[in-house]
Amino acid sequence: MTIDLTPATLYPLAAALIFAGVVAVTLGGAVIAAASRRLVYSVSGLALSFMGLAGLYFFLNSPFLALMQILIYIGAVCVTIMFALMLANPNDEPSPLSRTVLIGLASFLVSGLLAVGLCLVIVKSQWMPKAVPVNAGTVQDLGRALLMRYGFAFELISVVLLLAILGALVVARSGRRIQS
Amino acid sequence: MKVLNLLLHANGSLAVYLMIGALLFAIGFFGFLRHRTLVGMLVSGELILAGASLNFMAFSHFRAADPVTGQAFTLFIMGIAAAEAAIVLSIMIAVYRNYHSIETRDLKELEG
């Protein structure tokens, strides 16, 4: 079998290769985050997984969400977790107990069963046929929807974020006052 | 040849994205059960949220009439996750001040 290198065959091949790489980064980062003993590796694996997820969003035709994923999750959430980790300075994972292996094995079994079950459901179910899209899902459409149809939810999210910041300040400050 | 064709068009099928989402959810669940510190559990919770948002994105791209719906929902999930991370980290720092540890094993004394 010969592969003729025209754009018509080359582009799907390149897309499939990039997709495989993105999926590997996503799942590999997730495995590092879940299975690593050191918390710093765990947070780094989370950042790696989010990077791959941004690539998946790109494949799902929403580059705006991909950039937001990198900006919010990697740039804000992961960095904040890392900061708190260094502030609290915990000794990585606690000393191994005798039950640790048992707990790890049991949780692996349970989550493996969960994964197999979910994949079986996904493969076996019949999804509804694709609806005719009413718009192209571009950034303009997203902005229009956010400020018109989802305007109320958008404002509520802002209030929730404000309250979360204030609450975080209050909680972190009250502990300091008790100790001093 | 059929398998090769299937692999070549994997990025255009709904089931592939749903499976990646399911695997992310299962890995996050595994980490949630396995980790014994608050930070580890927070990281695993973020993985579970990531799996859920990938599901939303996949369904809205492949099935929904309005592809904006899933994107807006995923943006809201991001906002909620950021708020949640801020709260959890401040609680973690307060807990660390009082207990000098963030292992869940040590957090068993209540004061009321």
Write up this protein.
The complex is a heterodimer of chains A (180) and B (112). With 180 residues, chain A is mostly helical. Helix content of chain A is 77%, strand content 0%. Chain A is extended. With 112 residues, chain B is an all-alpha fold. Chain B has a single domain, classed as Helix Hairpins (Orthogonal Bundle). Chain B has helices at residues 2-8, 14-34, 38-62, 68-99. The longest helix of chain B is centred in the last third of the chain and has 32 residues, at 68-99. Chain B is elongated. The chains are: A mainly alpha (180), B mainly alpha (112). Chains A and B meet through α1, α2, α3, α4 and α5 of A and α2, α3 and α4 of B.
Which structural traits does this protein have?
heterodimer; A: about 180 residues; mainly alpha; B: about 110 residues; Helix Hairpins; 4 helices; elongated
CATH fold naming of chain B:
Helix Hairpins
Low-confidence stretches of chain B: none
Assigned CATH class of chain B: Mainly Alpha
Helix content of chain B: over 70%
Q: What letter string, H or E per element, gives the SSE order of chain A?
A: HHHHHH
The overall pLDDT of chain B, averaged over residues, is 87
How many H/I helices of chain A? 6
Spell out the helices and strands of chain B N to C. HHHH
Alpha plus pi helix count of chain B: 4
The structural class of chain B is: mainly alpha
Q: Compute the average pLDDT of chain A.
A: 86
The radius of gyration of chain A is 22 Å
Instruction: Assign the structural class of chain A, choosing from mainly alpha, mainly beta, alpha/beta, alpha+beta, or little secondary structure.
Output: mainly alpha
What can be said about the biggest beta sheet of chain A? none
* Strand elements of chain A, count: 0
| CATH structural architecture of chain B | Orthogonal Bundle
